[in-house]
Amino acid sequence: MTTWRACLLLLSTLLLQAQPISIALDKPVMSLNPLLLSREVEVQVVDLAFDRLVALDGQGQFVPQLLEGWEISKDGRDILLKLRPGLTWQDGSPIEAEDLVATWRMLSLPQVRKINDLVGVRTLDSLVAEGTHRVRIRLKTARASLLSDLYNFQPVPRRHYGQGAETLKHPLNYAPIGSGPYRVLPGAHATDIQLQAWDGYHGSHPGRWGAFRFRVQPQDKAEYGRQLRTREYHFGEVDWFRHYLLRRGAFGDGSLVAQSTPLSSFNTFWFNCNPARSLLGDVRLRRALAEALPWEFLKGQRRLRAERLATSLWPPQSWAFDQAVAPLPRAERAGVLLDEAGWKAGPDGIRVDSRGRRLRLSMFSAWGYSGRDHADAFCEALRKVGVEIDLRRTPVDEPYILSTRGEGDIWDYAWNTGLDPDSESPLFSSDGIASGSNVTGYRNPEVDRLFVQGRHELDPEKRRSIYLRINEDIQRDRPVLQLTYGVAYLVLDRRLRGIGFNPLGQTYGFVPGRRGWWLEGS
């Protein structure tokens, strides 16, 4: 009897291990090319298929990955990177120093920067291969963000990606030749991607489970809930309301577990600062809109949510977080600012300027999960001070896409920040306008100067003061209106093990991360 039970247990384990861990994504994947990663949804998949030069461990410390080590001179201007010998790409060709140099050069191509501007990596002054496994970095000025920059550096094989930035229609976008422990199986596309453990991996951080599957969840929330309950997904995010129901035992049958974690991100309204395309090119209007922020509505939602009002450009997980208490928005102040900007109340309450133009703005926001949300509350608050908003509901990814085209006045979507605040410089700098990363078109020469200064300041306290000043300038000019700091509302299959979070609150982007996940027999 004991032998029979042992055989059944072994068979059950083998069958379970043949099943891929299924992860739900909230939007389609645009590319699996590390050169073209503009959103966290792509990073989730690429983190399994490609190794970084350096990784984060579970304590948030930088550790070698493709590298076996590095040497930094006393003045911080000369860095020697040492690749691990014996590593290969998934096509069997060796990973060499020239691959790093070629990738670095490609990151400066305009078509790459338009999609993914890794400002920290591409602004390294010089990368030169010294033999097969060594790369020399020479800097005119030492930089404090060096290891964070190397963390964001995921080299690609120069023999396949050597023509520069591939368009988003190129086959390599869904059939990458990676360096990580999992390879993407044939047939992958924007909404369904399967990965399998790669036998040829000899790197430092292998995976524990045999396969993963990433699928875009249905937009119909009821159907998505059904799929979660029937274990079609082992891991996914849900809206705060269903997460609340799961915690209360009103959603699921006991096979699901609710978990949440603060994210190094913020929910925000992005304002079109281009005066040729939007009235919000006038900073006075942006400041007026900021005073109409419905903070009472956002604060009231905290009874059910774990989110907190955002007051700093750098979130609480960042060493550049500004802990100063900001004054709450005042609707009466919004009216004063609109008057000063020359917008007077019209006969129907909507403001008009001296040319007779109505103060009417378009806003793009994803469909809400249930009932009235922050976009509705914002529109109602603005209507009370004489601003008419044409609120257009879209699929979840559409506001971001429209912002990259400069279409509309206000875009509502969240943003995940990086390990170092310098990684956000393309969002707010003139350099970012040139590349297309700065979707708002915001310009401030002092902010440009401070970002460059902060990148190279080695004294931690002085560096922090620089980013606090950047925060003050951007909060004053209001290219964005932050709402709340992000929280991930997660649903897990009760059998899923190994879940952990990096310093940004993500389950990926560190080791073991998702490479350490496994399913335990039920």
Automatic annotation (TrEMBL):
One of its GO terms (cellular component) is outer membrane-bounded periplasmic space. One of its GO terms (biological process) is peptide transport. Pfam families: SBP_bac_5 (PF00496). InterPro entries: Peptide/Ni-bd, SBP_5, SBP_5_dom. Belongs to the bacterial solute-binding protein 5 family. Residues 62-426 form the Solute-binding protein family domain. This is Solute-binding protein family 5 domain-containing protein. Keywords: Signal, Transport. It comes from the Bacteria. GO terms for molecular function: peptide transmembrane transporter activity. Gene3D superfamilies: Dipeptide-binding Protein, Domain 1, Dipeptide-binding Protein, Domain 3, Periplasmic binding protein-like II. PANTHER family: OLIGOPEPTIDE-BINDING PROTEIN APPA (PTHR30290:SF9), PERIPLASMIC BINDING COMPONENT OF ABC TRANSPORTER (PTHR30290). Residues 1-18 form the signal peptide.
